[in-house]
Amino acid sequence: MSAPTSTAVRPLRIGSLVSATPVVLAPMAGITNTAYRQLCREQGEGFYVSEMITSRALVERTPETMRLISFTPAERPRSLQLYGVDPLTVSKAVEMIVAEDLADHVDLNFGCPVPKVTRKGGGSALPWKADLFRDIVRGAVTTASRGGIPVTVKMRKGIDDDHLTYLQAGRTAEQEGVAAVALHGRTASQHYSGHADWEAIARLRDTVTSIPVLGNGDIWSAEDALDMVQRTGVDGVVVGRGCLGRPWLFADLEAGFAGRPERVRPGLRQVTQVLRRHAELLCEFYEDELRGCRDIRKHISWYFKGYAVGGDMRARLGLVDTLEALDELIADLDLDQPYPGAAAEGSRGRAGSPQARVALPEGWLDSQELTGAAAEMIRQAELSVSGG
Ligand SMILES: Cc1cc2nc3c(=O)[nH]c(=O)nc-3n(C[C@H](O)[C@H](O)[C@H](O)COP(=O)(O)O)c2cc1C
Protein backbone atom coordinates (compact mmCIF):
# COMPACT_ATOMS: atom_id res chain seq x y z
CA MET A 1 0.00 0.00 0.00
CA SER A 2 1.31 3.46 -0.82
CA ALA A 3 2.33 5.79 1.98
CA PRO A 4 -0.14 8.60 2.54
CA THR A 5 1.05 12.13 2.05
CA SER A 6 -0.73 13.78 4.97
CA THR A 7 -3.39 12.82 7.45
CA ALA A 8 -5.15 15.20 9.81
CA VAL A 9 -5.28 13.20 13.01
CA ARG A 10 -7.66 14.05 15.81
CA PRO A 11 -7.85 12.45 19.24
CA LEU A 12 -10.26 9.54 19.47
CA ARG A 13 -13.19 10.20 21.82
CA ILE A 14 -15.24 7.35 23.20
CA GLY A 15 -17.81 9.05 25.40
CA SER A 16 -15.79 11.11 27.85
CA LEU A 17 -12.67 8.97 27.32
CA VAL A 18 -10.01 10.42 25.05
CA SER A 19 -6.89 8.98 23.44
CA ALA A 20 -4.56 11.34 21.57
CA THR A 21 -3.58 8.39 19.38
CA PRO A 22 -6.71 7.10 17.60
CA VAL A 23 -5.88 3.44 18.05
CA VAL A 24 -7.67 0.47 19.60
CA LEU A 25 -6.17 -2.93 20.35
CA ALA A 26 -8.75 -5.36 18.93
CA PRO A 27 -10.28 -7.80 21.39
CA MET A 28 -8.75 -11.20 20.71
CA ALA A 29 -9.84 -14.29 22.62
CA GLY A 30 -6.91 -16.11 24.15
CA ILE A 31 -4.59 -13.15 23.44
CA THR A 32 -5.67 -9.78 24.87
CA ASN A 33 -5.58 -10.70 28.52
CA THR A 34 -4.16 -8.45 31.25
CA ALA A 35 -0.61 -9.56 30.47
CA TYR A 36 -0.71 -8.78 26.78
CA ARG A 37 -2.68 -5.56 27.18
CA GLN A 38 -0.10 -4.30 29.66
CA LEU A 39 2.72 -5.07 27.23
CA CYS A 40 0.95 -3.23 24.40
CA ARG A 41 -0.20 -0.27 26.46
CA GLU A 42 3.35 0.45 27.62
CA GLN A 43 4.16 1.17 23.98
CA GLY A 44 1.67 3.89 23.31
CA GLU A 45 -1.65 5.52 24.09
CA GLY A 46 -4.90 3.94 22.95
CA PHE A 47 -7.81 1.78 24.00
CA TYR A 48 -6.79 -1.78 24.85
CA VAL A 49 -9.77 -4.12 24.84
CA SER A 50 -10.16 -7.36 26.79
CA GLU A 51 -10.96 -10.59 25.04
CA MET A 52 -14.66 -11.31 24.72
CA ILE A 53 -16.43 -11.93 28.01
CA THR A 54 -19.65 -13.89 27.87
CA SER A 55 -22.47 -12.01 29.57
CA ARG A 56 -23.89 -15.12 31.13
CA ALA A 57 -20.52 -16.27 32.48
CA LEU A 58 -19.99 -12.83 33.97
CA VAL A 59 -23.39 -12.78 35.64
CA GLU A 60 -22.70 -16.30 36.95
CA ARG A 61 -19.22 -15.21 38.09
CA THR A 62 -17.43 -18.24 36.72
CA PRO A 63 -13.87 -18.25 38.08
CA GLU A 64 -12.24 -18.11 34.63
CA THR A 65 -14.36 -15.13 33.64
CA MET A 66 -13.51 -13.31 36.87
CA ARG A 67 -9.83 -13.78 35.99
CA LEU A 68 -10.41 -12.54 32.43
CA ILE A 69 -12.03 -9.30 33.61
CA SER A 70 -9.09 -8.37 35.84
CA PHE A 71 -7.34 -5.09 35.07
CA THR A 72 -4.16 -3.88 36.74
CA PRO A 73 -4.40 -0.60 38.69
CA ALA A 74 -2.33 1.07 35.96
CA GLU A 75 -4.77 0.04 33.24
CA ARG A 76 -6.92 3.03 32.44
CA PRO A 77 -9.28 3.22 30.72
CA ARG A 78 -10.49 -0.33 31.24
CA SER A 79 -12.16 -1.57 28.04
CA LEU A 80 -14.17 -4.75 28.42
CA GLN A 81 -15.78 -6.60 25.54
CA LEU A 82 -19.10 -8.33 26.19
CA TYR A 83 -20.70 -11.02 24.12
CA GLY A 84 -24.33 -11.95 24.44
CA VAL A 85 -27.49 -12.85 22.52
CA ASP A 86 -30.19 -12.23 25.08
CA PRO A 87 -30.96 -8.55 25.82
CA LEU A 88 -31.83 -9.25 29.46
CA THR A 89 -28.62 -11.17 30.16
CA VAL A 90 -26.48 -8.54 28.45
CA SER A 91 -28.23 -5.82 30.48
CA LYS A 92 -27.63 -7.75 33.68
CA ALA A 93 -23.95 -8.07 32.82
CA VAL A 94 -23.71 -4.33 32.20
CA GLU A 95 -25.56 -3.68 35.44
CA MET A 96 -22.93 -5.73 37.28
CA ILE A 97 -20.14 -3.81 35.54
CA VAL A 98 -21.68 -0.51 36.64
CA ALA A 99 -22.56 -1.56 40.19
CA GLU A 100 -19.13 -3.08 40.86
CA ASP A 101 -17.11 -0.58 38.84
CA LEU A 102 -15.55 -3.31 36.70
CA ALA A 103 -14.78 -1.27 33.56
CA ASP A 104 -14.75 2.24 32.06
CA HIS A 105 -15.90 1.22 28.58
CA VAL A 106 -18.00 -1.66 27.28
CA ASP A 107 -17.61 -2.95 23.73
CA LEU A 108 -20.33 -5.24 22.34
CA ASN A 109 -19.23 -8.15 20.14
CA PHE A 110 -21.28 -8.52 16.95
CA GLY A 111 -18.38 -9.73 14.85
CA CYS A 112 -17.44 -13.22 15.98
CA PRO A 113 -17.65 -15.67 13.02
CA VAL A 114 -16.91 -18.86 14.98
CA PRO A 115 -19.53 -21.58 14.26
CA LYS A 116 -20.20 -22.31 17.96
CA VAL A 117 -21.25 -18.64 18.27
CA THR A 118 -23.10 -18.00 14.97
CA ARG A 119 -24.95 -21.33 15.29
CA LYS A 120 -26.68 -19.80 18.31
CA GLY A 121 -27.46 -16.58 16.47
CA GLY A 122 -24.63 -14.70 18.20
CA GLY A 123 -21.68 -12.59 17.06
CA SER A 124 -21.76 -11.73 13.37
CA ALA A 125 -25.09 -13.57 12.87
CA LEU A 126 -26.96 -11.36 15.31
CA PRO A 127 -27.35 -7.98 13.55
CA TRP A 128 -29.42 -9.78 10.90
CA LYS A 129 -32.21 -9.83 13.49
CA ALA A 130 -32.58 -6.07 13.45
CA ASP A 131 -34.97 -5.84 16.40
CA LEU A 132 -32.90 -8.16 18.58
CA PHE A 133 -29.78 -6.13 17.77
CA ARG A 134 -31.60 -2.92 18.71
CA ASP A 135 -32.88 -4.43 21.98
CA ILE A 136 -29.42 -5.59 23.06
CA VAL A 137 -27.79 -2.27 22.20
CA ARG A 138 -30.58 -0.24 23.82
CA GLY A 139 -30.47 -2.28 27.02
CA ALA A 140 -26.69 -2.06 27.28
CA VAL A 141 -26.55 1.69 26.56
CA THR A 142 -29.38 2.53 28.98
CA THR A 143 -27.85 0.49 31.78
CA ALA A 144 -24.29 1.66 31.15
CA SER A 145 -25.37 5.30 31.08
CA ARG A 146 -26.27 5.03 34.77
CA GLY A 147 -22.57 4.64 35.45
CA GLY A 148 -21.49 7.10 32.76
CA ILE A 149 -19.92 4.22 30.84
CA PRO A 150 -19.76 4.52 27.02
CA VAL A 151 -20.81 1.52 24.94
CA THR A 152 -19.31 0.73 21.54
CA VAL A 153 -20.31 -1.80 18.90
CA LYS A 154 -17.88 -3.97 16.95
CA MET A 155 -19.27 -5.77 13.92
CA ARG A 156 -18.56 -7.34 10.55
CA LYS A 157 -20.13 -6.41 7.20
CA GLY A 158 -22.76 -9.10 7.59
CA ILE A 159 -23.30 -12.82 7.29
CA ASP A 160 -22.33 -13.04 3.60
CA ASP A 161 -22.51 -10.81 0.53
CA ASP A 162 -26.25 -11.48 0.18
CA HIS A 163 -26.94 -10.66 3.81
CA LEU A 164 -25.08 -7.47 4.65
CA THR A 165 -26.06 -5.78 7.88
CA TYR A 166 -23.43 -3.16 8.69
CA LEU A 167 -25.12 0.00 7.40
CA GLN A 168 -28.42 -0.76 9.06
CA ALA A 169 -26.71 -1.87 12.28
CA GLY A 170 -24.51 1.25 12.23
CA ARG A 171 -27.56 3.51 11.95
CA THR A 172 -29.34 1.64 14.74
CA ALA A 173 -26.30 1.83 17.01
CA GLU A 174 -26.06 5.57 16.39
CA GLN A 175 -29.77 6.08 17.15
CA GLU A 176 -29.50 4.08 20.35
CA GLY A 177 -26.73 6.21 21.80
CA VAL A 178 -23.65 4.09 21.15
CA ALA A 179 -20.38 6.05 21.57
CA ALA A 180 -18.58 4.59 18.52
CA VAL A 181 -18.92 1.79 15.97
CA ALA A 182 -16.10 -0.35 14.62
CA LEU A 183 -16.32 -2.31 11.39
CA HIS A 184 -14.17 -5.28 10.44
CA GLY A 185 -14.43 -5.17 6.65
CA ARG A 186 -15.24 -8.84 6.14
CA THR A 187 -18.41 -10.93 6.24
CA ALA A 188 -18.76 -13.89 8.60
CA SER A 189 -18.52 -16.22 5.61
CA GLN A 190 -15.12 -14.76 4.69
CA HIS A 191 -13.83 -15.60 8.16
CA TYR A 192 -10.25 -14.21 7.89
CA SER A 193 -9.69 -14.94 4.20
CA GLY A 194 -9.15 -12.44 1.39
CA HIS A 195 -8.77 -8.75 2.08
CA ALA A 196 -10.73 -6.50 4.39
CA ASP A 197 -13.04 -4.23 2.40
CA TRP A 198 -11.96 -0.71 3.29
CA GLU A 199 -14.56 0.73 0.88
CA ALA A 200 -17.28 -0.68 3.11
CA ILE A 201 -15.60 1.06 6.03
CA ALA A 202 -15.74 4.34 4.08
CA ARG A 203 -19.44 3.75 3.34
CA LEU A 204 -20.14 3.25 7.03
CA ARG A 205 -18.24 6.47 7.77
CA ASP A 206 -20.55 8.26 5.29
CA THR A 207 -23.63 6.70 6.84
CA VAL A 208 -22.90 7.13 10.54
CA THR A 209 -22.03 10.77 10.97
CA SER A 210 -22.58 11.79 14.58
CA ILE A 211 -20.26 9.36 16.39
CA PRO A 212 -16.75 8.06 15.73
CA VAL A 213 -16.44 5.24 13.20
CA LEU A 214 -13.45 2.92 13.57
CA GLY A 215 -11.96 0.82 10.81
CA ASN A 216 -10.65 -2.69 11.30
CA GLY A 217 -8.98 -5.27 9.13
CA ASP A 218 -5.52 -5.87 7.68
CA ILE A 219 -3.52 -3.14 9.38
CA TRP A 220 0.02 -4.54 9.58
CA SER A 221 2.00 -1.33 10.07
CA ALA A 222 1.67 2.32 11.06
CA GLU A 223 1.69 3.15 7.35
CA ASP A 224 -1.34 0.91 6.79
CA ALA A 225 -3.15 2.64 9.66
CA LEU A 226 -2.51 6.11 8.24
CA ASP A 227 -3.52 4.86 4.83
CA MET A 228 -6.82 3.52 6.16
CA VAL A 229 -7.62 6.83 7.86
CA GLN A 230 -6.83 8.76 4.73
CA ARG A 231 -8.74 6.46 2.39
CA THR A 232 -11.84 5.91 4.51
CA GLY A 233 -12.08 9.01 6.72
CA VAL A 234 -12.44 6.91 9.87
CA ASP A 235 -11.83 8.43 13.29
CA GLY A 236 -9.56 5.64 14.43
CA VAL A 237 -8.25 2.18 13.70
CA VAL A 238 -8.66 -1.17 15.44
CA VAL A 239 -5.58 -3.38 15.20
CA GLY A 240 -5.67 -7.13 15.80
CA ARG A 241 -3.36 -9.67 14.18
CA GLY A 242 -0.80 -7.04 13.17
CA CYS A 243 0.43 -6.74 16.73
CA LEU A 244 0.76 -10.48 17.42
CA GLY A 245 4.34 -11.05 18.56
CA ARG A 246 4.88 -7.35 17.98
CA PRO A 247 3.46 -5.25 20.83
CA TRP A 248 5.83 -2.45 19.76
CA LEU A 249 3.53 -1.85 16.78
CA PHE A 250 1.67 0.47 19.19
CA ALA A 251 4.81 2.63 19.47
CA ASP A 252 4.95 2.78 15.67
CA LEU A 253 1.27 3.72 15.55
CA GLU A 254 1.74 6.49 18.10
CA ALA A 255 4.72 7.86 16.18
CA GLY A 256 2.95 7.51 12.84
CA PHE A 257 -0.18 9.33 13.96
CA ALA A 258 1.99 12.06 15.51
CA GLY A 259 3.68 12.48 12.13
CA ARG A 260 7.02 11.13 13.33
CA PRO A 261 9.04 8.82 11.07
CA GLU A 262 10.73 6.57 13.65
CA ARG A 263 9.63 2.94 13.84
CA VAL A 264 10.66 0.18 16.23
CA ARG A 265 12.95 -2.24 14.40
CA PRO A 266 14.16 -4.67 17.08
CA GLY A 267 17.07 -7.04 16.77
CA LEU A 268 16.56 -10.56 18.14
CA ARG A 269 17.93 -9.63 21.58
CA GLN A 270 15.19 -7.02 22.08
CA VAL A 271 12.54 -9.39 20.73
CA THR A 272 13.51 -12.08 23.24
CA GLN A 273 13.44 -9.52 26.07
CA VAL A 274 9.82 -8.68 25.23
CA LEU A 275 8.93 -12.35 24.77
CA ARG A 276 10.49 -13.16 28.16
CA ARG A 277 8.56 -10.36 29.83
CA HIS A 278 5.35 -11.50 28.15
CA ALA A 279 5.89 -15.01 29.54
CA GLU A 280 6.52 -13.62 33.03
CA LEU A 281 3.37 -11.47 32.91
CA LEU A 282 1.35 -14.50 31.78
CA CYS A 283 2.69 -16.54 34.72
CA GLU A 284 1.58 -13.74 37.06
CA PHE A 285 -1.80 -13.47 35.32
CA TYR A 286 -2.49 -17.20 35.70
CA GLU A 287 -0.72 -17.39 39.08
CA ASP A 288 0.73 -20.57 37.63
CA GLU A 289 4.10 -20.88 35.90
CA LEU A 290 3.21 -23.93 33.85
CA ARG A 291 0.00 -22.36 32.55
CA GLY A 292 1.78 -19.10 31.73
CA CYS A 293 4.52 -20.99 29.88
CA ARG A 294 1.97 -23.06 28.00
CA ASP A 295 0.21 -19.90 26.92
CA ILE A 296 3.38 -18.20 25.67
CA ARG A 297 4.00 -21.12 23.31
CA LYS A 298 1.40 -19.92 20.83
CA HIS A 299 3.14 -16.53 20.60
CA ILE A 300 6.61 -17.92 19.79
CA SER A 301 6.25 -18.14 16.00
CA TRP A 302 4.81 -14.61 15.87
CA TYR A 303 7.70 -13.15 17.86
CA PHE A 304 10.28 -14.91 15.69
CA LYS A 305 8.64 -14.25 12.30
CA GLY A 306 11.45 -13.34 9.90
CA TYR A 307 14.31 -14.03 12.34
CA ALA A 308 16.75 -16.87 11.76
CA VAL A 309 15.56 -19.25 14.48
CA GLY A 310 15.76 -22.85 13.29
CA GLY A 311 12.91 -25.34 13.27
CA ASP A 312 14.45 -27.46 16.00
CA MET A 313 14.79 -24.44 18.27
CA ARG A 314 11.24 -23.32 17.55
CA ALA A 315 10.00 -26.83 18.35
CA ARG A 316 11.84 -26.79 21.70
CA LEU A 317 10.50 -23.33 22.49
CA GLY A 318 7.05 -24.66 21.65
CA LEU A 319 7.35 -27.12 24.54
CA VAL A 320 8.67 -24.72 27.15
CA ASP A 321 7.22 -25.29 30.62
CA THR A 322 9.26 -23.09 32.98
CA LEU A 323 10.72 -19.59 32.78
CA GLU A 324 14.12 -21.07 33.51
CA ALA A 325 13.85 -23.39 30.51
CA LEU A 326 12.79 -20.41 28.39
CA ASP A 327 15.88 -18.47 29.55
CA GLU A 328 18.16 -21.38 28.67
CA LEU A 329 16.72 -21.67 25.17
CA ILE A 330 16.91 -17.91 24.60
CA ALA A 331 20.58 -17.96 25.67
CA ASP A 332 21.28 -20.45 22.85
CA LEU A 333 20.02 -18.08 20.15
CA ASP A 334 22.18 -15.79 18.05
CA LEU A 335 20.96 -12.71 19.86
CA ASP A 336 23.03 -10.27 17.81
CA GLN A 337 20.81 -10.76 14.78
CA PRO A 338 19.56 -7.41 13.50
CA TYR A 339 16.01 -6.62 12.42
CA PRO A 340 15.35 -8.75 9.31
CA GLY A 341 13.24 -6.15 7.49
CA ALA A 342 10.31 -7.20 5.30
CA ALA A 343 10.47 -10.83 6.48
CA ALA A 344 9.32 -9.69 9.94
CA GLU A 345 6.47 -7.59 8.54
CA GLY A 346 3.20 -8.13 6.70
CA SER A 347 0.36 -10.49 7.60
CA ARG A 348 0.47 -12.87 10.54
CA GLY A 349 -2.04 -14.84 12.58
CA ARG A 350 -5.25 -16.40 11.34
CA ALA A 351 -5.93 -16.40 7.61
CA GLY A 352 -7.65 -19.57 6.42
CA SER A 353 -10.31 -20.13 3.85
CA PRO A 354 -13.86 -18.82 3.59
CA GLN A 355 -16.71 -20.85 5.10
CA ALA A 356 -18.98 -22.26 2.41
CA ARG A 357 -21.99 -21.73 4.65
CA VAL A 358 -22.09 -19.85 7.92
CA ALA A 359 -23.51 -22.03 10.70
CA LEU A 360 -26.82 -20.42 11.72
CA PRO A 361 -29.92 -21.39 13.70
CA GLU A 362 -32.52 -23.04 11.52
CA GLY A 363 -34.51 -20.57 9.44
CA TRP A 364 -32.41 -17.64 10.69
CA LEU A 365 -32.20 -15.97 7.28
CA ASP A 366 -35.94 -16.29 6.53
CA SER A 367 -36.76 -13.05 8.25
CA GLN A 368 -34.99 -10.13 9.89
CA GLU A 369 -37.49 -10.29 12.74
CA LEU A 370 -37.13 -12.56 15.71
CA THR A 371 -40.10 -14.89 15.58
CA GLY A 372 -41.49 -16.97 18.45
CA ALA A 373 -39.39 -20.13 18.18
CA ALA A 374 -36.17 -18.24 17.50
CA ALA A 375 -36.91 -15.89 20.42
CA GLU A 376 -37.19 -18.87 22.75
CA MET A 377 -33.98 -20.34 21.32
CA ILE A 378 -32.17 -17.06 21.93
CA ARG A 379 -33.15 -17.03 25.58
CA GLN A 380 -31.49 -20.39 26.01
CA ALA A 381 -28.53 -19.70 23.76
CA GLU A 382 -26.28 -17.74 26.06
CA LEU A 383 -22.89 -19.41 26.16
CA SER A 384 -21.49 -19.96 29.58
CA VAL A 385 -17.79 -19.87 28.72
CA SER A 386 -15.75 -16.71 28.04
CA GLY A 387 -13.00 -16.30 25.47
CA GLY A 388 -11.86 -18.79 22.80
C1 LIG B 1 -7.06 -15.02 17.75
C2 LIG B 1 -8.20 -14.06 17.50
C3 LIG B 1 -9.16 -13.90 18.47
C4 LIG B 1 -10.22 -12.99 18.28
N1 LIG B 1 -11.13 -12.79 19.26
C5 LIG B 1 -12.07 -11.81 19.14
C6 LIG B 1 -12.92 -11.47 20.22
O1 LIG B 1 -12.86 -12.05 21.32
N2 LIG B 1 -13.84 -10.49 20.01
C7 LIG B 1 -13.94 -9.81 18.80
O2 LIG B 1 -14.78 -8.92 18.67
N3 LIG B 1 -13.12 -10.11 17.79
C8 LIG B 1 -12.18 -11.05 17.93
N4 LIG B 1 -11.29 -11.28 16.92
C9 LIG B 1 -11.35 -10.44 15.71
C10 LIG B 1 -10.41 -9.24 15.85
O3 LIG B 1 -10.84 -8.40 16.91
C11 LIG B 1 -10.37 -8.41 14.55
O4 LIG B 1 -11.65 -7.92 14.27
C12 LIG B 1 -9.88 -9.22 13.36
O5 LIG B 1 -8.73 -9.96 13.69
C13 LIG B 1 -9.57 -8.31 12.16
O6 LIG B 1 -8.59 -7.37 12.47
P1 LIG B 1 -7.05 -7.57 12.02
O7 LIG B 1 -7.04 -7.72 10.54
O8 LIG B 1 -6.37 -6.32 12.51
O9 LIG B 1 -6.57 -8.81 12.69
C14 LIG B 1 -10.27 -12.22 17.08
C15 LIG B 1 -9.28 -12.39 16.11
C16 LIG B 1 -8.24 -13.29 16.30
C17 LIG B 1 -7.18 -13.41 15.25
Describe this structure in words.
- Catalyzes the synthesis of 5,6-dihydrouridine (D), a modified base found in the D-loop of most tRNAs, via the reduction of the C5-C6 double bond in target uridines.
- It catalyses: a 5,6-dihydrouridine in tRNA + NADP(+) = a uridine in tRNA + NADPH + H(+); a 5,6-dihydrouridine in tRNA + NAD(+) = a uridine in tRNA + NADH + H(+).
- InterPro entries: Aldolase_TIM (IPR013785), DUS-like_FMN-bd (IPR035587), DUS_fam (IPR001269), DusB-like (IPR004652), tRNA-dHydroUridine_Synthase_C (IPR024036), tRNA_hU_synthase_CS (IPR018517).
- Residues 25-317 form the DUS-like FMN-binding domain.
- By secondary structure, the protein is α/β, with parallel strands linked by helices.
- The protein has 2 domains: 12-263, TIM Barrel, CATH 3.20.20; 268-343.
- It contains 16 helices and 10 strands.
- The strands form 2 sheets. It has an 8-stranded parallel β-barrel with strand order 3-4-5-6-7-8-9-10, surrounded by 7 helices.
- Helix 1 packs antiparallel against helix 11, helix 11 crosses helix 12 (289-297) and helix 11 runs antiparallel to helix 15 (323-331).
- The two termini are 32 Å apart.
- It binds flavin mononucleotide.
- Residues 26-31, 51-52, 81, 109, 111-112, 154, 184, 216-219, 239-242, 349-350 line the site of flavin mononucleotide (FMN).
- The site of flavin mononucleotide has 24 residues, from strand 4.
